[in-house]
Design a protein that fits this description.
heterodimer; A: alpha/beta; 11-stranded mixed beta sheet; 10-stranded mixed beta sheet; globular; B: alpha/beta; 6-stranded mixed beta sheet; 4-stranded antiparallel beta sheet; 12 strands; 35% helix
Chain lengths: 444, 259
């Protein structure tokens, strides 16, 4: 067995054992073993599966990654990647918690915030099922560390919990498996920010597979804001998922901002299990070059009187591929459901392709639901208006593209993060415009 | 300032302008009137550089240079301003961001220093008041949620900020009630000076009571069929386009229906 075999060969053929840590609770070890067994049964047997249609399967099947990532030895200048904020910060490098880069800060009464690996026995794996998703199975078997956040009833976190998942040179050819567990008590309020960075993978011959799984339970009337920013380098594969269960009256607001990576797939599963729960799901994905971005959402309205408001927006350039596949399922009992789902894509080049699959499955008869999808080019009237006010074509296009993106960014409530995202997005769009300019002028 | 000679233009292969001749001198206000479909808006779009329209003949000189050689951006930077008949809405771009950048693009082009946010706000304040726009105008997205009248006043506000050499007002009066019309006219009149010219395109005579033109031209079926002084507009109001006979008469509707 070579560490440079594909994951599938490595795990199914090898005698690999799960990486139990000294003192790890028996429950966790059992979960790891079951997940490993599950993966051995499943493999990456994804071709022909509806939920992987248009997905990028090849990099998973053919990629050679060591699932036993070791963390990092040198701190290097990773600190420069971290913004100066007052947030509760946990930093993980190549999957492993780095105490020196982290700053947990003072915590209010009733809040437990710790790296998951130090968290003892937990309810891990209740929401993220391993049977049907081999990546989730791999994560559950091999997770290194991540966040454990538990809030008591009425606890309130005023500052966001900000997680940084960094991959440095030491993560080359590894599978990094962050695992996060959040249990928000009744009426508690919290904000989690997950940020993924892998600057070293900007060059093509370095690579890492980042495969995070996050589970969140929102207690009655709890309010959870959850922002995820994917800004890995072009050598990174990112295949991750979020699993949410909401109890009565709770509110879950999600932002997924995808700016980087070679191939990215995100799944978001939400179960609305208590009356009056609401979820607000937003995403912005920017893909150019050969990037492949695949965003999936599954919302189950299992009980009456819940609301979903979903808006996913994408900007595609170059030869990029993007997939939006959203399903809102309204159960027979889930009367008085309000569910709105919209996907909009702005396609800037002739070669970019977008697959948009908005779906509603409604079994109840007293509901208010709608879904819609638009995919199109820049609005010519708006473009001419800006040019007639003295903006050159490139600037006008960038302004309009930025405006399209801003609808999502403007709804991020953390001011620092919103400003950061606006800058990042603008930078990416300007780079896209330059690339486009060179291509048009035959320089590329 | 502007010299149009035998200008012909087509859209999707259909010729709309069939040989326009028009000369506007610095400081002059010219009005172009005409029935629907006569080519009024085509003329304004062609002057602003909309590439959906194909110039099939003739020439246009602006400040001694060949205007038709330049694209929409260059024309704007050279000092041509088009107040759109249907101003576009752009969610996600604020009036402030848009207009400050536009003003600074003009200033850079003229070799002047750029305005910072404070200079800009100071300059904008008076003009917002003049056009009776709301104080939160600058923070709001461009024309999003604006009433028809607000959109038109916003066009004139932009004109006031950009200080063009030639302003083309394309049916700026359409959809305006009498109060809004006065406000718009006041905005335009405040910008009149010996170095700035206006081309006011309108269906109705009413606007010309407030913005008094030096010359009035009647456009019909792609040609200027009659030119005269400001009294021509009144005459048209009285007698209708049928009075001109021929092609103009066939299409005649004059603005009695204006509210």
């Amino acid at each position: 067995m070579s560490p440079f075999d594909t994951l599938q060969t490595l795990i199914t053929a090898g005698d690999l054992t799960v990486p139990g840590k000294p003192g790890e609770p028996a429950g966790n070890l059992k979960l790891r073993q079951e997940a490993l067994d599950s993966f051995r049964r499943q493999g990456f047997n994804l071709n022909g599966r509806e939920d992987w249609k248009y997905g990028n399967i090849k990099p998973l099947v053919q990629g050679r990654f060591n699932p036993l990532a070791k963390g990092h030895e040198e701190q290097g200048d990773l600190a420069r990647l971290l913004p100066f904020t007052e947030n509760h910060r946990l930093v993980f490098v190549n999957g492993v918690f780095d105490a020196s880069l982290s700053a947990l800060g003072d915590l209010p009464e009733g809040v437990r915030l710790t790296p998951l690996a130090a968290g003892g026995e937990t309810d891990l794996g209740r929401l993220a099922r391993v049977e049907h998703n081999p990546v989730t199975a791999l994560n559950t078997a091999f997770w290194q560390d991540g966040l454990l956040l538990e809030t008591a009833e009425d606890a309130r976190l005023d500052r966001p919990v900000e997680l940084f998942f960094l991959v440095d040179e030491g993560g080359n050819r590894t599978m990094v498996s962050p695992r996060n567990l959040v249990v928000a008590g009744a009426r508690s309020r919290l904000t989690i920010i997950e940020r993924y960075l892998a600057p070293f993978t900007e060059s093509a011959n370095t690579a890492a597979l980042v495969a995070p799984v996050t589970e969140i339970t929102c207690g009655e009337d709890a309010q959870v804001q959850h922002v995820k920013v994917f800004r890995e380098g072009r050598g990174t594969l990112h295949y991750g998922s979020t699993h949410v269960r909401q109890q009565a009256g709770s509110r879950y607001a999600s932002h997924e901002i995808a700016l980087g990576g070679h191939s990215l797939r995100r799944e978001l599963h939400v179960d609305l299990d208590g009356a009056g729960a609401t979820c607000d799901l937003k995403a912005l994905y920017l893909a150019d070059g050969d990037q492949h971005m695949d965003l999936r959402t599954r919302v189950n309205h299992n009980v009456p009187g819940c609301q979903t408001d979903e808006l996913y927006k994408g900007i595609l350039d170059g030869r990029a591929r993007a997939v939006f596949d959203g399903l809102i399922k309204v159960a027979r009992d889930a009367q008085q459901t309000e569910a709105f789902q919209t996907n909009r894509n702005l396609v800037l080049s002739d070669d970019a392709v977008c697959y948009s699959i908005p779906r509603l499955e409604i079994y109840a008869d007293d509901v208010k639901c709608s879904h819609g999808s638009t995919t199109g080019q820049m609005d010519e009237e708006q473009l001419f208006f800006l040019r007639a006010r003295g903006f050159d074509d490139r600037t006008a296009r960038t302004m309009l593209t930025m405006a399209f993106a801003r609808e999502i960014i403007a709804t991020v409530t953390d001011e620092n993060l919103a400003a950061f995202l606006a800058d990042e997005t603008e930078e990416r769009l300007l780079a896209m415009a330059r690339q486009d300019f060179h291509t048009r002028n035959g320089e590329s | 300032m502007l010299k149009i000679t035998h200008l012909k233009a087509a859209i999707e292969g259909k010729e709309i302008l069939k040989g326009i001749d028009l000369e506007i001198k610095p400081g002059e206000i010219h009005a172009i009137m005409g029935p629907n479909g006569s080519g009024k808006s085509t003329l304004s779009q062609v002057l602003a550089g909309n590439e959906n329209y194909e110039v099939t003949g003739g020439s246009v000189e602006f400040l001694g240079e060949d205007l038709l050689e330049k694209d929409a951006t260059e024309r704007a930077l050279d000092g041509i301003f088009l107040a759109f008949q249907y101003p576009v809405e752009i969610p996600g771009i604020s009036n402030e961001e848009f207009l400050r950048q536009a003003v600074n693009a003009q200033r850079r082009h003229r070799g002047e220093s750029e305005l910072d946010a404070f200079d800009f706000a100071g300059l904008a304040k008076d003009k917002i008041d003049l056009l009776q726009l709301k104080n939160d105008l600058l923070e709001r997205s461009l024309n999003v949620g604006f009433s028809g009248g607000e959109k038109k006043r916003n066009e004139i506000f932009q004109m006031a900020m950009l200080e063009p050499k030639l302003a083309v007002l394309d049916e700026t009066d359409s959809g305006l009630d009498i109060d809004a019309l006065r406000v718009v006219a006041e905005g335009v009149n405040s910008l009149r000076d010996s170095g700035r010219s206006f081309l006011v395109i309108t269906h109705y005579q009413r606007l010309l009571e407030y913005i008094v033109p030096d010359h009035v031209h009647v456009l019909s079926a792609g040609r200027i069929v009659k030119s005269g002084g400001k009294e021509l507009a009144l005459e048209l109001e009285e007698k209708g386009y049928t009075w001109l006979g021929g092609a103009a008469g066939d299409l005649a509707t004059i603005g009695k229906e204006a509210s």
